[in-house]
Amino acid sequence: MDIDIDDILAELDRDTTAVDQTLTSQGNDTTVVGSDAVGDLVAKQQAAAAQTAAPPSPVQDFNDLLVAWRNERMCPEILAYPHLLMARTLRRVQQQMEHIECVSMGFYEDETRDAASAVANKLPLLCMEADLERLKFVVRSYIRCRLSKVDKFSLYLRQLDTQQPVPLTELLSSKELEYHERHFTILLKLLNSTILKHMPPELQAIDDNEGSVPMVEGPDLASFVFVRVTGPDLGRSAPDTDPTLEINDEGVRFYPVYIQELREEVELTVDGIYVMRYNVVQELVQARKAILI
Amino acid sequence: MSYYDIDDILADSTKVPCKFNCSVPGLGYLEGNAGHPIKKDSKAELPLWLARILAIIGAETVENEEEELPFVELMVPDLFSSRVLNAIKSSPTSLDVHSLSAHFYELAIKWATLFSDRRLVNVLNTMMIERAQEVNNHALSIPADSAPALQSGTFLLTLDEFEKRIFRDSHTSYKDMKSWMLRK
Amino acid sequence: MSLPKTLQQTFSPEEIQFIVENEPIRIFPRITVRSTVRQRRQRSSQQQMRWRLVTAEETPLNNMVATQTTEVALWLALLLKQQGKCSIVPPVWLTLKQLQMYIDYELKNPGRFSDLPMSWLVVAQLLFNRAADDLQDPVHLLRGKIQDLREIRQGKIFQGLKQLNESHLQLDNLSILEINELRPFVLGVMNKLKDLHASVADEEEGA
């Protein structure tokens, strides 16, 4: 299985100007939509977003991407793909590349002051290139991390049915779906031609979950993670806007959580750092009230 | 624990002593007596994955009318004998776990599951934490560029596979950190 | 493989540095970027946006005035510093006096960690290496204090590792780099402790 990641990334880079047609909604919004209604919905959502608030600034988007990247890296499961955020980010990478190109060619300069502005623009250019590289690094690392999980959970993802709270089209980007599909085909072909075809038919299953140990490995949601409790909207919203936050006798704000396996209640105080089972803080992470660190 | 976890598979193939509750024709080869039946009350070492099933499933031909006896009865293997458990309790870090079993913890977890053995879990809990401190100290103190096992004395040779993995992972982490700190 | 095995479980120290480099820090620019009113009038037809960034605020850069402090992302500060275009205002905690106070606190409170910023170790290390001349105190003395702090805290962390359990840990005030360094050990042992205790958990539920 020699799939070159750079090809995939290059392809992603090329396609940044085209808006991803499968994008439905962003991050924690998990509305289920039929595929034909998707286009409409996107248009509506974008219109609604435009009316209610200005689009997020590049810095805001970058910070959200950083959070998405850090969560993804430390999370045992594959998290929902932030369709809108990534569409904006990839478009921004493309635009910035073009912008830097134009500046370095001197297109924006006054003809009378060529030499002087060329020198003056050297420093900003240096910064802008570094800045763009930093964004590209996060995008790359984020996608690589997700692809490694798509590889790892290849069979598991295939078995996720449409009843899941987050449908597969929501969980993965269209590119990731395509990658998953093709990776799985190649994997199956390899297994068939090397081993399975030599086995009796009743031993050929690779997805038998009836035995004492299921063959299909899913994410271990009970594994431990480091988590920092931030408060509502990653600490950007005032704590009193969050009805799930409670205040203890000492006036400390906390989220009550429950460790099912141990029947133990724990108070996770805002700004606290914990080592906790992922499934205990899963909802807090998905609701942007805590971040994996 | 995943289906393809090699350590889990190896732990499951560890042989444990069993006592047969009934005679079984044709199984004599298990005690080096090929062609003959294995007799009631005779002892044999069976891999855990097999012993576990035989210890749960009842034999159909039971002489008494009382409740069905399973084919075999699991006997406490040496590595969970009270002698070993006492040695663990008195000094967890001086115990040669690797020579007991390369998959000691894995096996212990399986054993504790079979017998719901809370006492074993408590002993193991203390043991794991105490030995882990020692593993951590070694992982931190060994210079990044030397071959660890050779120069750090015997403790590292007594680790089981789980402890080795912890050692490797933490050592890598400390090593990366040290080289980052030295960077200009 | 799309992501190296080691990076599937933790961050590299370089990645932690990358994360911290996005934090703001104050600088003294040595250049003036903001155009004067007269200049602006002359160029009124043309928007002279000289910086346009996608990961950090560009406004402070486009309004830089020599010797007037402003706040930029740490990586930008280091880049400008490297180009000789600014000096960096070290954070208030990065002085011999302050660090000694933190050391005293660490020694006096064996069960707690002082509330140094989450990024203290990374920031100190970066400024020592790239902006030593901007620091208030001699860098070798500061390094010594940071090293002391690191060792005291590490000692406490290792003491704390005896508290590992199958439920959870609270580790307030540990910095992001200290957490990352400990991650493989802490998660490895706690996951195994969890498995160990899960082996007898079913019985209890039945009872």
From TrEMBL, chain A:
Q: Which protein is depicted?
A: DNA replication complex GINS protein SLD5
> Where in the numbering of this chain does the DNA replication complex GINS protein SLD5 C-terminal domain appear?
219-293
Species of provenance: Lachancea mirantina
* Domain GINS subunit residues, every copy: 109-193
GO terms for CC? GINS complex
Cite a single Pfam family from the UniProt record: Sld5
- UniProt main location, coarse: nucleus
Q: Where does this polypeptide localize? A: Nucleus
Q: Which UniProt keywords apply?
A: DNA replication, Nucleus
- Similarity comment: family membership: Belongs to the GINS4/SLD5 family.
A GO term (biological process) for this protein? DNA-templated DNA replication
Tell whether Signal is among the UniProt keywords. Answer: no
Sum up the protein's function in the record's words.
The GINS complex plays an essential role in the initiation of DNA replication.
Automatic annotation (TrEMBL), chain B:
A Pfam family of the record is: PSF3_N
Domain GINS subunit stretches: 80-181
Please give the start and end residues of each transmembrane region. none
Q: Does the keyword Nucleus apply?
A: yes
Which SUPFAM superfamilies has this protein been placed in?
A: GINS helical bundle-like, PriA/YqbF domain
Query: Which family is this protein grouped under?
Result: Belongs to the GINS3/PSF3 family.
| Name assigned to this protein | DNA replication complex GINS protein PSF3
What is the native source organism of this protein?
Lachancea mirantina
UniProtKB/TrEMBL annotation, chain C:
Domain DNA replication complex GINS protein PSF2 N-terminal residues, every copy: 61-89
Q: How does it assemble?
A: Component of the GINS complex.
The residue ranges of the GINS subunit domain are: 93-196
Stored InterPro entries = GINS_A, GINS_bundle-like_dom_sf, GINS_Psf2, PSF2_N
Protein name stated in the entry: DNA replication complex GINS protein PSF2
- Which keywords accompany this UniProt record? DNA replication, Nucleus
Family listed: Belongs to the GINS2/PSF2 family.
The processes (GO biological process) annotated in the record are: DNA replication; double-strand break repair via break-induced replication
Gene Ontology CC annotations of this record: GINS complex
Identify the domain of life: Eukaryota
Which compartment or compartments is the protein found in?
Nucleus
Task: Write down the Pfam families for this protein, in alphabetical order.
Answer: PSF2_N, Sld5
Q: Which organism is it from?
A: Lachancea mirantina
